[in-house]
Amino acid sequence: MAVSIRLSRGGAKKRPYYRIVVADARSPRDGSFIEKIGTYNPLLAKDDAKRVVLDTDRAKHWLSVGAQPTDRVARFFDAAGLRERAARSNPKKAEPGDKAKERAEERAAKLAEAQAATEAPAVEEPAAEVAVEAAPAEDAAPSEETAEA
Questions:
Q1: What's CA 71's distance to the chain center, in Å?
Q2: Fewest CB atoms within 10 A around its CB: which of 42, 59, 89, 136?
């Protein structure tokens, strides 16, 4: 029989409270268990002594007979000094997925097109303004010449 040390949820909606239990790995999360060896209240402050209450003697016993703790319970055991937990490193954790990368590339391409479209008329407008300014000056020059004659 595979035995695991895991959390069993209790408490009200939006007010979680967990029991640290030894249970058959095939039983449901909140179902029957072999023994309760502690509690975990995530609503308390991290430095509060009552946040994790653990019966270390029973935990040592169950670890010695081969019970496997879940990741969260293994963290509690590591903090209590019962069992070393190997530090994990996941450098790709914050990296977005393939579909998110594709969407980002599409957005960047659309943004580049939009900027190119807004910059192109902006470049043409100063040239048009120069031509408009130059035209009245040319018109004014012949009228001055005719006025002088």
A1: 19
A2: 89
pLDDT of amino acid 72: 92
Q: What is the pLDDT of residues 57-69, one digit of tens each?
A: 999 999 999 999 9
Cα angle value 135/141/142 (rounded, 5°): 105
Note the Cα 38 to chain centre separation in Å.
30
Backbone angles phi, psi at 21, to 5 degrees: -125, 155
Whats the size of the chain, residue-wise?
149
Query: Is CATH 1.10.3720.10 the right assignment for the domain spanning 3-80?
Result: no
Q: How confident is the model over 85-100, as pLDDT tens digits?
A: 877 788 888 888 899 9
d(CA 10, CA 122): 64
